[in-house]
Specification:
The chain is an alpha/beta fold. Helices cover 37% and strands 16% of the residues. The protein contains 11 helices and 11 strands. The chain has a 6-stranded parallel beta sheet with strand order 2-1-3-4-5-11, covered by helices on one side. Strands 7-6-8-9-10 form a 5-stranded parallel beta sheet, sandwiched between helices. The protein starts with 5 loop residues before the first helix and ends in a 25-residue tail after the last strand.
Length: 335
Amino acid sequence: MRRVTLADVARAAGVAKATASRALSADNPEVGAATRVRIREIAAELGYQPSAVAQALSTGRVRLIVLFVPAAEPGWAQVLAGAMAEAERRGYQVLVRPLGADAPREQSGLPVDGAVLVGPARVPAGWDASRPVVVVDEDLFDAGATVVRTANWSAGYQAGRHLIEQQRRSALVLVPHHRAGGVQARAAGCQAAFAEAGAELPSGRVVEAGRDADPGAGLDAALGRGVRPDGVFACTDETAVAALGSLGRAGLRVPGDVALVCFGDESLAGQAGPSLAVIPRPAAELGARAVQLLVRAIEGAAEPAEVHELPVRLVPGAPHDRPQPAAGGSVSARP
């Protein structure tokens, strides 16, 4: 079947080809509204599909964006899925390119309209500064860039409020050894919730998990020193898994003895059982929001570079019975 051309649409509408082209352009107001509607209806009836090449020539855009991801960093699949779904919804194609020591060096000349940088990935040298960039990074606080991240302080605050409401006032915050910016914000939010409730959660109650080879080492050591928490806020998936192992080895039950709140993947709650409270990271939403901001910049929206934080909501675990302290007893926030 012969492909319907712009000339066919113009002929059927009884207008010049240039008029048909202007009527079918989203950015061109030179044709009257009634004529524009009529030409677009005729184009739809004929099954006209505009040429991608012609559109690129007329707008200067190829409707193609690149997602730069860190080659050695796992855990970004949901962010990428959200970004790609949003790009498709907005009529853009996506290239995914790794950046890192083993990635191709020359990627700055890719024929794309803009880029989303995911995680520790950074724009390659020589990138054309006229092409907009949006960064998805929990740890980047650079107001000079358009950054999308989780509301990390709020996540920690919600975790702290949940533990306080569960009467867990002798809690620990378990952080990974790198203590990156997003993790620090979550820990600070949790400490703020405890301070607001009049239950101090000092820096000594922020415990660093072990390294990759032994992620439970930090909490194991704290428990070995006689620390007995009744609640733990694990700032990442990995620290939550480490906490479950360490508490189990110490003979402490979750949630009977220790209430556990985790920031990260909601599926972890299903793996660990209904007792685990989770603050899900809005991974797919982070990717989608980054693409929304990027497309707006590509298509001419002049907005200042700023940090966009996506809200989070704690999903509580199943209710449980917990032995109550003896009458007149007190619970301290210190070991």
